[in-house]
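We give this protein:

***
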Amino acid sequence: MTSRERILAALNHNQPDRVPIDFSGHRSSGIAAMAYPKLREFLDLPPRPIRVYDVIQQLAIVDEDVLDRFGVDTIELGRGFALDEESWSPWTLPDGTPCLVPSWTHIERDDSRWVIRSKTGRIFAQMPNGTLYFEQTHYPFLDGDDLQNISTALEESMWTAVASPPGPIDSQSLSEGAKRLREETGRAIIGLFGGNLFEIGQFLYRNDQFMMLLAAEPKRANDFLDKLVEIHLANLEKFLTAVGEYIDIILFGDDLGMQTGPMISPQMYRELFKPRHKLLWNHAKKLADVKVMLHCCGGVLELMPDLIEAGVDAINPVQISCSGMDAGRLKAEFGKDITFWGGGCDTRDILPNGTPQQVAENVKEQVRILHPGGGFVFQQVHNILANIPPANVVAMFDAVNGDSNNAS
């Protein structure tokens, strides 16, 4: 099987020839920039420039030699676009390692912290000394919303303003880049769309204020979500018209869970979010022959039936350390209806604190539970963080399919 065939087999609940692997195919399956050069050194690979494509989470672009070493079957759509020298500016990671960041991300030193400004000059993100990631500091709707200008507000929110270059990419360039990547790689291509609903409410209003809006002002909440869906549908049409024939998976996002379970009740999900998710996800499938994946952290066992009914094909990162997220239970109850894209290694306790042998044992057990019958793509639970020993990273990937990937 080719990598693309392997991923699609898993998504169609057919047993592939081996466990398909995702590493850095999207923004929650990657590796921290501070950990990446240590991994390359451990693998005895030559040094490469550290390119931090996700400044907020401090994630590095993973080079082809590492993808090949671990037998990775996925790639993110952004690889189809030029990464010329003009696209990058020099910066320094918190541990002093030189790196490159996207040139459109205006990182500045402000006393005892690094800050990022919006295009209007407002500070909306900060990374104080002693921390490893940027955090949001400005919430555009905190002191009052303007539903007619949500698009403007999104430009003032850290999570939605920093992810891509300012201004729209024209459809022709987007299509040409996607086509070029399709011709160059046999890996399954993931197109990152977003389409967040619950999370964008949190980005704009702040978590507590948005929760109160949902509970106390349902009409206002519905008006906000309707405007947001209108924006997402228009963007979805443009995105998939340009790249739909060249990608295999479209990734939506909405973190709905926390350590102890869902952040909202199943009833609230069904009333406010499920119909809108269903509209977006099914519209994507009408526009292109793609599988819909949802990035959704936390414990969401109680929401799984509704997510499946709404049309999602795969869920990641399958946070197995959360309440209700036992891999065996998930596979038994929902394994025929949804692909578990993740849950392959516990990144909370085992990956950072275990020995390489303990990491390998954890991986083998998760694979034993989740792989049979398809419906599983290996991904560690969320990103490999800065403190993860490189020996544990190698042990994790080598354990997925034994040592067979070493020669790939």
Notes: DSSP finds 15 helices and 18 strands in the chain. The chain has one domain: 3-27+63-91+167-407. The domain at 3-27+63-91+167-407 is CATH 3.20.20.210 (TIM Barrel).
